[in-house]
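Lecture 7 notes: from sequence to structure.
We start with the chain below.
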Amino acid sequence: MPITVVASIKKEATINGLLNAVFNGLIPWFQHNDKTTVPLMGEGGFGMDIAITAFILLFLVSMIVIGAQRKKARKEQVMGFEWDDTKRLHRLLRKVPGKFWAAGLVFGLFGLLVVTPLTLGPLALLGIDALTPLAYAIFKGIWAGLMAAIMIVPIILVALAGQPKTN
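Predicted structure tokens for the same chain:
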């Protein structure tokens, strides 16, 4: 029996959130653990790392998840659904291109142009211009895990909209 869209979102949010938290926390730790601090901006700064990660993570996660979810829908392992124009999120997501590579680009650009400023802006406003390697590793791990888990919702909705609803 196919699982519902909500069940698929819960499963993928958990898996993607945890995997991205672990890997995106470990990578900066290994990159910077020999330093005393990691600057926000400038040479060796984590501002550019956050921007690149926001784009690449959402681009890759959406490409993988959209392809996998559509394959599952074709195999009747997960239910599709139809857009509900009474829901604002559905009206917005309906504009995302149907091709998975184009949708991946849209989600990647969202990460770069929306998530990045929402992440770095508050740090700059609070006067945080550097973090210890451990603090940055923890910050980036939690940030990437939350971003992946939250963004799974629109990614799966885009993936399964218009797919067979199966009985």
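Points to note: The CA atoms of residues 54 and 60 lie 10 Å apart. The longest helix spans residues 46-74.
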